[in-house]
Amino acid sequence: MRFFALALVLFTALAQAPKPLLVGGEVGQALYPGGRGVAYGEVRLIARGLGLALWQGEGQVALGLGSRYKAFPLVENEAQAAARGAGWKRGQEIFVPLRPLSEALGLVYRAQEGILLQLPWARLLGVERRPGQILLRFSREVNALVEGNGVLFLLAQGEGAGLSQEAQGLRLTLETPPTRLYYPGGGQVILEWNPLTRPRPTVLLDPGHGGKDPGISVGGILEKDLTLDLARRVAARLPEARLSRQGDETVPIEARLRLAQAASVVVSLHVTQGSAVNLYLPKARSTPLAQNAEALLASAPAEQAALLKVYAGDPRRLAEALEKAFSALGIVLARAEGPYALTDIPGAGVLLEIGVERLKTLEARNQVAEAIAQAIRTYLGE
C-alpha cells in the first residue's frame, strides 16, 4: 500500500513538472501553476509562434486571430490563476492557459510527452475586387499585417494575381497600402481605400416600466412617470440620445433588448424608495465582441477606442463616469450585480435606480439628469 501511495505521489509530481512546449516553430516550456494540472504557456512565445495579435492592458491580456479573441484577467498568485483559468503574471512574463485559448481560437492542442500547439495553414478560397475594396476569403480566421505597399496574411497559402507565397504566409502586393483592414468573421479579411465616414455613437435611455406596468407608487406619483420625465431631461442634454418609449406605453423586455443591441450606451432608469442611488452592472457579457471590448479599450489608442465604443463598450468605465458625476452632487452610488438582460447588451449597459427623495423638486431632477448626461459624455469622449 505504501508503495502505491508513493508511486501516486511521484506520478502526480511528474505530471505537474514543466514540459516541452512547441508552438508553431517556437520552442518553450509548458508550466503548471499551483500544481492543478492546467498547462500554461508564455503569451509572447505563443503570439510569435502562431502569428496571433497580442494586447495587454491594465489587469488583462488578450490574444486574437482574425475576428476571434480570447481575453484573460491577470493574477499574480499562481494557484489563484490556475483555479480561475486566468492569466498568470510571473515577474515580467505572462502565461495563459493553453487549452481554453486553443478552444477559443481554433488552435490544435496535443498533449503527449510535451505539448504541441499549432495553427493549420489557411487556404485562400477566393478574392473579390470591388471599387475601393478587396475581400479575401480563407478556410479559417487569419491575421494580416500591412507592410509597405503589401499585406501579409500569416500562415496562409494560395494563388492569384498579385499574390506570392512566402515562408511566413501569403503576400498580396498592392500599388498603395489600404487605409483600413478589418475582419468581419467567417475567415474573411477586407481591405479598403475609400474615405471612412466615422459612425457616431448612439445612446439609448430606457425609462423603466410604462403602460400596464406602473412600477412603484410614492405619494401618488408612479415610477413609470418619474423615469420617463427623467429620461426626457437627460435626452434634452444629449442630441444623440433616443428613448425606448416616448410616452405611457407598454414596451416588452424583448423590444427593449432589440433597441439596446444597436446602442453604444444604454442606461435603464428606475426609481426606488428613499434616497439611495444604486448602479447595477452585468455580471458577465454574452457576445464575443462585448467580452473582448474591455480588454481592447484598455490598450487601444484613443481614435480606435472611440470607434470601438460605437459598437461595443465597457460598463465599468461608464460606471466610473457616473460615480464621478454623482459624487459632485454629494451622492455615493452603490454598485451591485444587475439583471441578466444586461449581459446581452454589447454596448456599455447599466441600470440606474434612483431614490425618489432625489427627484422631489424640478431642480433636483435637472441636477440628476445633468449628472447622467455628463457621465455619458465623459465615457464617450474620454
TrEMBL record:
Sequence ranges assigned to domain MurNAc-LAA in this UniProt record: 203-377
Q: Does Hydrolase appear among the keywords?
A: yes
Signal peptide bounds: 1-17
The family database entries (CDD domains) matched by this protein are listed as: MurNAc-LAA
Is Hydrolase among this UniProt entry's keywords?
Answer: yes
**Keywords annotated in UniProt:** Hydrolase, Signal
Kindly give the SUPFAM superfamilies that the UniProt entry links to this protein: Zn-dependent exopeptidases
Q: Which Gene3D superfamilies match?
A: Zn-dependent exopeptidases
**Coiled-coil annotated residue ranges, if any:** none
What Pfam family is a match for this entry?
A: Amidase_3
Write the protein's name: N-acetylmuramoyl-L-alanine amidase
